[in-house]
C-alpha cells in the first residue's frame, strides 16, 4: 500500500496520501507499532517522523471523540498531560481542543497547558541534560547568557537547577574580587527576580567584605540603582517600601472587588498588606454572602485577573476576623534569611524554649513556643521542595546556638542522611544522629525510658506534675533540660517491617505523656496518609506545620481538618501554614548554609564552645548502656546508675527469647494491672499484647507464647481464678 510513495517526489502529496493510508490501516485494526514498522520499511526517515506525529494527533483526537456535551475536567487534564509528556506540540493540542471542546473548556485547556509546563516533574535525564547545557553555556559565554537561558525555561524545577548554577558562579565571581557595581549591573541585566536577588545579595557581601555600606534602590521598571553608601534603618526602609506599594495594592483590591461583583459576590475592599512571599488583600463580604461562594474561586481569579495581578497559580482564600483575605503571590518574592533575625546577644530564657516559626504577612517574626500547652508536639508534612528541611535546620541551628546543653538536648533521626549530618558532634545530642530504622527505634525507646524516669522524679516531689513546675521550683540551681526529638521523613521508618511496630509503640507513648516531662516530638513526612502514619499517632499532635502539598487530601490530613485544602495553594520553598488554636501563614527562615557556609559553620562552632553556667538534672540513663541492655549485651561501663524499668525488661525478654518456645512467662503485678485495664476498656487480645509486651504477629512464636499467656490469664480471671500463671 505504501509502494506508491517511493517514486513520487512531491512531499505534500506524500504527506496527504500517508495520512489517508494511516487512517485506513487504523480502521483495519493495525496498532501504532505495526504502522510505524511498515512506514519505516517503505519510506524515508522524514516521513517516519511525520507518521509518528500523525499517530499522536489521531490518538489525542480519539480520546476526545466521545458522544458527550461536556468533558470531565479531570479527564481533560489527564489527556492533555499525557500528550505533553508524549511530546505533542502545544499548537496541535489547542487545535484539536478548539474543534472538540466548548469555549470554557478550551480556556481551561490553555491554563492547563501553562500549569503543566510550569509544574510538571522532569525526568532525571531531562534534569541532567539541562544542567549540562547550563555548564556548557557558562564555560564558553558570559554569565548573562546563562541568565537568558534560565529566563526562557518555564518549568520551576528546571529553573531551580539554573538558580543553583547561578549561585555557584556568583560565588566564584565574588572570590575573584569583582566590585559591587559589577553585581548590580548583572542584576539589571536579568528580568528574573530570583537572579536579581542573588546578584544584589552578592553585592551586599562584597560591600561587607570591603567595609563599604551599600544602599540599593529598585526603580519602577525593576532596575537596580546603586546610590551613595549610607547606613539604613531597617524599620524605616520597611515602611518606605510598604508606603510605596499602598496605592498599587489599593488599586488591586478595588479591581478584585469589581471582579467579585461580576460573580454576583457583594464585597467591600478593606485593606492590603505586603509580605515577603505574597500580598494580602482583605475584603468584607456583604450581608448574607457565604464564605463558600469565594472558597474555591481561586482558579476563576487566575482566569479573570491573571494578567493584571500577575497570577500564575490560584491565590489562597482564607477567613480572618473581620473579613476574607486573598493572598496574591508576589512576582518579586523575597526570602526571609535566618541571619537577619537573630544576633544571639544576651542570656537565653531557660524557662521558655522556642524554635523559629517564620515571618507573617506583616513582616513580623513569629516563634513557636514548645513550652506552650498548645504546641508540645508538631506534625509537619508537604511535598519535596516545600521547605521542610530548611525549617528543620533553622530550628536545630537556633536551639543549639541559643541554649546550652544543660537547657536543651536534641534527638535527631535522618534516614535521608543529608539533612542533619552536619549537626553530628554537637554537645546537645543525646545520641549520634539516627540514620536508619533500627537506630531510630533505639533512640525512641531511650526517650520513653527517659520519660518514665522523669515522672518518677516528679513523683518524689509533692505538687510537681510537669517540667515547667519542676524548673520553676529548682532552676537555675538545677535545670531539667527539654529534649527535642526531630524526625525527618518518617515514611521510610514506618514502612520498615522489622522496626515499624517498635517505632509506632514508642511514638504513641511519647505523644501521650512526654510533653509534660519536657520531651517534644517533631515528626515530618512527605506522605501523611493513613497508610504511613497511624491516625492515632496523628491525632496526638496539637500543633501542625503544613508545607505545600500535591493533593488537597494531604492538606486536610496534615491540618487535621477534612475541609481545609489550603496547603495545596502554598508556593513552596518555605511558604507554610502553622496551626495551633488558629492558622497562620508564614514564610520559614532560610538558613542559607549553601550560600553562606562561613556563617553557618561559625554558629556551629559557637554552639560547641558556648558557656554553660547551669547544672542539668540527670536521669542516670546512659544511651549506649541502654541500647546494650535492649539487645542483652553487658556493658563494661555499667556503674549501677541506670535502672531498667518494666518496659526495658520486656524488650530485653523479647530479644533474649526470640525464636525460642521453651521459656516461661511470669506476669508481675504491673503487667496484670495493665492487661486488666486494657481488657476493661474493650481492647482486643492482639492489641493488649502489643501495648503491654511490644509484640506483634511478626514476632512469630514469641508473640504466640505471650498471647496464649494473656488469654489464659483473662480466662482464669473470668472463672474467678487467682493463682499465678
Q: How would you characterize this protein structure?
A:
With about 725 residues, the protein is α/β, with parallel strands linked by helices. Among the domains are: about 125-215, no CATH class; about 250-330, Threonyl-tRNA Synthetase, Chain A, domain 2 (2-Layer Sandwich); about 340-610, P-loop containing nucleotide triphosphate hydrolases (Rossmann fold, 3-Layer(aba) Sandwich); about 670-720. It contains 27 helices and 17 strands. A seven-stranded mixed sheet has the order 11-12-13-10-14-15-16, sandwiched between helices.
Major sheet size, sense and barrel closure: 7 strands, mixed
Distance between the termini: 88 Å
How much helix, percentage-wise, in residues?
40-55%
The largest sheet has its strands arranged as 11-12-13-10-14-15-16
Percentage of residues in DSSP E strands:
5-15%
**Rg, Å, rounded:** 31 Å
How is the CATH topology of the domain at 338-609 named? Rossmann fold
**C-alpha geometry:** globular
Number of helical segments? Answer: 27
Secondary structure tally: strands: 17
- CATH-defined architecture of the domain at 338-609: 3-Layer(aba) Sandwich
Indicate the CATH class of the domain at 338-609: Alpha Beta
Low-confidence stretches: 227-247, 634-662, 721-725
**What is the CATH homologous superfamily assignment of the domain at 338-609?**
P-loop containing nucleotide triphosphate hydrolases
- Nearest-integer average pLDDT: 82
Oligomeric nature of the chains: single chain
Structural class, from secondary structure content?
Answer: alpha/beta
Keywords: ATP-binding, Cell cycle, Cell division, DNA-binding, Nucleotide-binding, Plasmid
Binding site for ATP: 382-389
Family: Belongs to the FtsK/SpoIIIE/SftA family.
Domain FtsK: 363-556
Amino acid at each position: 500500500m505504501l509502494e506508491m510513495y517511493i517514486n513520487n517526489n512531491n512531499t505534500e502529496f506524500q504527506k496527504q496520501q500517508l495520512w489517508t493510508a494511516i487512517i485506513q490501516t487504523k480502521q483495519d485494526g493495525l496498532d501504532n507499532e505495526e504502522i510505524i514498522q511498515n512506514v519505516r520499511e517503505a519510506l524515508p526517515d522524514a516521513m517516519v517522523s511525520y507518521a509518528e506525529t500523525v499517530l499522536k494527533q489521531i490518538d489525542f483526537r480519539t480520546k476526545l471523540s466521545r458522544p458527550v456535551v461536556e468533558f470531565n475536567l479531570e479527564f481533560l487534564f489527564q489527556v492533555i498531560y499525557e500528550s505533553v509528556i508524549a511530546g505533542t506540540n502545544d499548537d496541535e493540542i489547542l487545535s484539536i481542543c478548539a474543534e472538540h471542546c466548548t469555549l470554557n473548556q478550551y480556556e481551561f485547556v490553555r491554563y492547563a497547558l501553562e500549569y503543566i509546563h510550569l509544574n510538571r516533574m522532569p525526568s532525571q535525564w531531562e534534569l541532567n541534560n539541562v544542567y549540562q547545557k547550563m555548564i556548557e553555556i557558562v564555560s564558553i559565554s558570559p554569565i548573562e547568557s546563562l541568565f537568558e537561558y534560565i529566563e526562557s525555561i518555564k518549568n520551576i524545577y528546571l529553573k531551580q537547577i539554573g538558580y543553583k548554577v547561578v549561585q555557584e558562579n556568583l560565588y566564584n565571581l565574588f572570590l575573584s574580587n569583582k566590585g559591587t557595581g559589577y553585581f548590580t549591573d548583572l542584576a539589571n541585566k536579568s528580568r528574573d527576580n530570583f537572579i536579581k536577588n542573588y546578584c544584589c545579595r552578592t553585592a551586599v557581601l562584597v560591600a561587607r567584605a570591603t567595609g563599604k555600606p551599600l544602599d540599593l534602590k529598585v526603580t519602577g521598571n525593576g532596575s537596580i540603582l546603586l546610590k551613595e553608601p549610607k547606613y539604613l534603618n531597617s524599620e524605616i526602609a520597611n515602611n518606605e517600601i510598604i508606603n510605596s506599594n499602598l496605592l498599587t495594592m489599593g488599586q488591586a483590591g478595588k479591581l478584585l472587588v469589581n471582579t467579585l461583583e461580576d460573580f454576583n459576590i457583594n464585597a467591600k475592599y478593606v485593606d492590603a498588606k505586603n509580605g515577603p512571599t505574597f500580598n494580602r488583600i482583605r475584603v468584607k463580604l456583604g450581608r448574607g454572602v457565604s464564605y463558600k461562594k469565594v472558597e474555591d474561586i481561586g482558579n476563576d481569579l487566575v482566569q479573570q485577573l491573571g494578567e493584571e495581578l500577575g497570577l500564575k497559580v490560584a491565590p489562597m482564600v482564607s477567613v480572618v476576623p473581620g473579613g476574607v483575605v486573598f493572598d496574591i503571590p508576589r512576582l518579586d518574592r523575597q526570602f526571609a534569611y535566618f541571619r537577619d533575625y537573630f544576633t544571639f546577644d544576651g542570656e537565653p530564657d531557660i524557662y521558655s524554649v522556642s524554635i523559629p516559626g517564620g515571618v507573617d504577612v506583616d513582616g513580623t517574626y513569629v516563634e513557636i513556643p514548645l513550652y506552650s500547652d498548645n504546641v508540645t508536639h508538631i506534625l509537619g508534612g508537604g511535598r519535596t521542595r516545600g521547605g521542610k528541611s530548611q525549617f528543620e535546620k533553622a530550628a536545630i541551628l537556633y536551639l543549639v546556638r541559643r541554649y546550652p546543653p544543660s537547657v536543651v538536648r536534641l534527638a535527631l533521626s535522618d534516614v535521608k542522611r543529608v539533612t542533619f549530618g552536619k549537626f553530628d558532634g554537637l554537645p546537645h545530642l543525646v545520641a549520634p544522629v539516627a540514620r536508619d530504622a533500627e537506630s531510630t527505634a533505639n533512640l525512641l525507646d531511650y526517650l520513653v525510658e527517659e520519660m518514665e524516669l522523669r515522672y518518677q522524679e516528679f513523683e518524689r516531689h509533692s505538687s510537681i506534675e510537669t517540667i515547667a513546675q519542676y524548673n520553676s521550683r529548682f532552676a537555675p540551681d538545677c535545670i531539667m533540660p527539654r529534649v527535642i526529638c526531630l524526625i525527618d521523613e518518617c515514611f521510610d521508618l514506618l514502612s520498615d517491617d522489622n522496626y515499624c511496630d517498635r517505632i509506632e509503640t514508642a511514638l504513641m507513648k511519647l505523644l501521650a505523656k512526654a510533653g509534660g516531662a519536657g520531651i517534644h516530638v517533631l515528626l515530618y513526612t512527605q506522605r501523611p496518609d493513613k497508610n504511613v502514619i497511624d491516625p492515632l499517632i496523628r491525632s496526638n499532635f496539637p500543633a501542625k506545620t503544613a508545607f505545600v502539598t500535591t493533593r488537597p487530601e494531604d492538606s486536610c490530613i496534615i491540618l487535621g481538618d477534612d475541609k481545609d485544602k489550603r496547603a495545596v495553594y502554598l508556593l513552596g520553598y518555605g511558604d507554610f501554614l502553622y496551626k495551633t488554636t488558629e492558622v497562620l501563614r508564614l514564610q520559614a527562615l532560610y538558613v542559607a548554609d549553601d550560600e553562606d557556609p562561613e556563617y553557618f559553620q561559625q554558629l556551629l562552632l559557637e554552639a560547641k564552645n558556648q558557656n554553660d553556667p547551669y547544672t542539668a538534672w540527670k536521669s542516670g540513663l546512659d544511651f549506649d548502656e541502654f541500647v546494650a541492655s535492649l539487645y542483652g549485651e553487658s556493658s563494661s561501663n555499667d556503674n549501677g546508675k541506670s535502672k531498667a524499668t518494666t518496659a526495658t525488661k520486656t524488650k530485653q525478654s523479647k530479644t533474649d527469647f526470640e525464636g525460642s518456645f521453651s521459656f516461661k512467662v511470669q506476669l508481675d503485678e504491673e503487667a496484670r494491672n495493665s492487661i486488666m485495664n486494657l481488657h476493661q476498656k474493650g481492647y482486643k487480645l492482639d492489641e493488649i499484647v502489643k501495648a503491654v509486651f511490644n509484640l506483634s504477629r511478626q514476632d512469630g512464636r514469641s508473640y504466640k507464647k505471650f498471647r496464649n499467656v494473656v488469654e489464659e490469664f483473662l480466662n482464669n480471671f473470668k472463672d474467678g481464678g487467682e493463682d499465678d500463671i
